[in-house]
Design goal:
- It is built from 6 helices and 3 strands.
- By secondary structure, the protein is of the alpha+beta class.
- A 3-stranded antiparallel sheet has the order 1-3-2.
Length: about 190
Amino acid sequence: MPPPVQEDRGILGNEFSLDTFLAMYAYAAGRLGMDPPPVLPVYVGLARDPDSGSFAVAGELARALSDWLGSGTALVTTGDVVHYGRPYGDDPASDELPRDVPGLTRHFRTLLVRALELALGERDYAGAYRVLGDLKSDQRHVLPVIAELLGPGAGFRVHDFSLSDYAPIFRVAPPCLVASTLITYMPSG
């Protein structure tokens, strides 16, 4: 079995959400008159074994990453928590979801909060994985790693959750919704 952390300088080369984070990070540091602190980009692949359903690799990855996470270290994850619409295989005309953006926002935010409760509060990674899979979330493999890093009793706060329609960007029929979300994760205590 390969080690849980491997170096690959090219894997994140085209990750635009990371590029956006790093650009904003550098901008904020510059506004404060300082150099941005160092960043260790990590790509989290499969944290769930597709054959057994085990999340043991999430624990292994968390243990490997914990050596780099000391006092004063921030852990930031990027990636969309929701994908919804025709380009993602959904047929909005046939589902029972709300048809308006405010209704969809409430619906998807509720599911996201449930996934966070399952992973962080109940340590039910399989349940969280199912909910995040229904959301077509980029975070379904990351969340068990975060929960393992933070330990039992971890908490969270969803500061912002909004849907953006990418249909004009991708030149597809609407809806093509992606969630923009800001979440703070907190270790217990």
